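Hi W., the zinc ion complex you wanted:
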Amino acid sequence: MLFGTLLFSLFLQFSTSSFIFKNTFNIPSADLNKISYFLESEYNKLKEKWNIRQEKKIEIFFCATTDDFVWKTKSNRRTGAVYTGNKIYLQPLKFLKQRNILYDVLRHELIHAVMVGGNNKQMPKWFHEAFAIYESGEQKRIKKKVSLKFNSLAELESFSNSANYNIMETSYYYLGITMQYLITEYGEKSISSVITDRNLSFEESLFMATGESFPTFEKKIIKHLSGY
Ligand SMILES: [Zn+2]
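Structure:
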């Protein structure tokens, strides 16, 4: 462990088989070990369950302050972590631990990262977000806070960028239900084939997996969501 600690202080970075950890100089090595172990094991579970491939190492960047996090991610101050450009940016550990969301946000952003890496390049944002919410298990703690009107899944997803946290959470709530519905209706295997398809467009791979055209498919989901 001494060698590891020495490395952190020399290079402020640390690497495991699937991740590179950056700006780690304020992170106690016990935390870093726990986080890297968690990520590696979640990553292996995801790969196995969904048949997902990943070609590049994923970078984990520890922001020293919330200001730095907001500046780097252009996100709001309450967001815990953001995945962009093969990097997962984390709020300061203290912030994440106080809210007891460290492992939830790590898992959520990891799901985004593995979905992007080496898989279907054309997955729409709503599908990405719906899958991340469903698969991370966050759905259990997400609640409907306000009433939202939407006529398409893209419109529903656009609410997740709202500066209003209640609107954002409600959009997540519906997206989680969307993925639950898809998995119940079509099965995990179909969803996995949509995620990992490298040749077809999203709508084509969806058609291959479900036998339905996107407009029909979308209408069915919107109707289902109107019951919540
Ligand atoms: Zn997300």
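The CA atoms of residues 92 and 98 lie 10 Å apart.

W.
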